[in-house]
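User: Sequence in, structure out. Go.
Assistant: Echoing your sequence, followed by the C-alpha cells.
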Amino acid sequence: MTANLTDFLPDDYASGQFLGRALSPDGPCVIGIRGGELFDLTGDVASVSGAIARGLVDGGETLGPVADGLPDGWTLLSPIDLQCIKASGVTFALSAIERVIEERARGDAGQARAIRAQLEDAVGAGIRSVVPGSDRAAQLKAALIEQGMWSQYLEVAIGPDAEIFSKSPVLSSVGAGAQIGIRSDSSWNNPEPEVVLVCTPDGEVVGATLGNDVNLRDFEGRSALLLSKAKDNNASCAIGPFIRLFGDTFGIDDVRSAVVELLIEGPEGYRLEGTNEMSQISRDPLDLVAQCLSEHHYPDGFVLFCGTLFAPTQDRDEPGAGFTHKVGDRVTIRSQRIGTLTNTVTTSKDAPSWKMGIGGFVRNLTERGLADRI
C-alpha cells in the first residue's frame, strides 16, 4: 500500500460517501469510499462523470479498509475526468477589492498597498452590505460611477450577472499530492482555496470537493482579457482529494457553512495562513450553478469553483510588495467536512507535462475493454 488516504480525508469519512480517481499500472480507475472501505468501481463504470450521470456509485471490487491505503503502484488523481471545469470569480467582497487593486496597479505589486487603502475607504463597506443585482446595488454602482471609482470587477461583484469562466481543459486538473504550476514568467501570483461543486449534466449539485484556482495577479492585472493566460496553464488547476457526495451526513448547507483553511509553507521558512468562509459569499452557491448552466448543455457534467474570500496581502520579501509564490511552496487547503488538498509549487514549465487528454483516455479504456462503460 502506497498512499495514506486518511491524511487526505475528513475525520468523519467513515460516515460519508466519496468518489475519486486513481492511476493504476493499467491506467485510470474510478474509486469509491463508503463505510470506511475502499472500492474499485471501474469494472462497472469507467469514468467519474459516467458514475455521477448514471448514479453508479455503489458496488465495485473491494480494495480493503481506507486506512490501508491504495494498492501498491497506485496514486491519487484529480477526482474528476470528463466534466467541464468552470469557475466563478469575484464572489466575495474582499476578492472584488483585490481584483480592482490589480486592475489599477496594472499588475505591479509594488503599488498595491496604497491603492488598497484608498479603495477600502471608498467602497469596502458598500460592497459588503449589498445583495448583487438588487436596487441598492444599482444605486451604489451609480454613486461609484459618479466618483470615478467604477470597475468591471465591481460589475460582476454587485451586478446581476456573475463572472463565470472556463478554468482548465477537460482531464487537465491535477490531484492531491501532485505538483502545481505557476507560469515561470509571473512575478505576482497566489493560490485560491475554493470549494468546488460537482454537477450532473442538467445542473443538479451532487457533491463537493476542494480546489486551488491558481491566480497570476500580474497577468490579469494588466488586462482582464489576459484572464485565460492567467488561469489556464500546465498543472495550474488542482482538485481533490475526493468528491464528497451529498447524502444523509453531508449536503448543500454544509457547503454554505464550510470554512476552507489555507496554509502556505515556504522553503525558506515562510508561513502564511488564511481562511475562506463560505458564509461570506455574496451569491448563493446554487445561484452560481444556475448562472453557469444558463442555456448551455454539459453532456458529461461540470464542476464549478465557487470563488474565494482569501487574498494574500502579507509581505513576503519586500515591504509593501505583498505575497507571491516561490518554487517549493507547500500549499495545503483543508475543510473539515471535505478533506485536505496538498500540492507543491513548481513552474508550469517544469511541472510534469499533461499527456493523457480525451483521446488518450479513450484509447486506454478501449485497450482495457472498458470503453463501453464510460
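User: And one key feature?
Assistant: The chain is about 25% helix and 30% strand.
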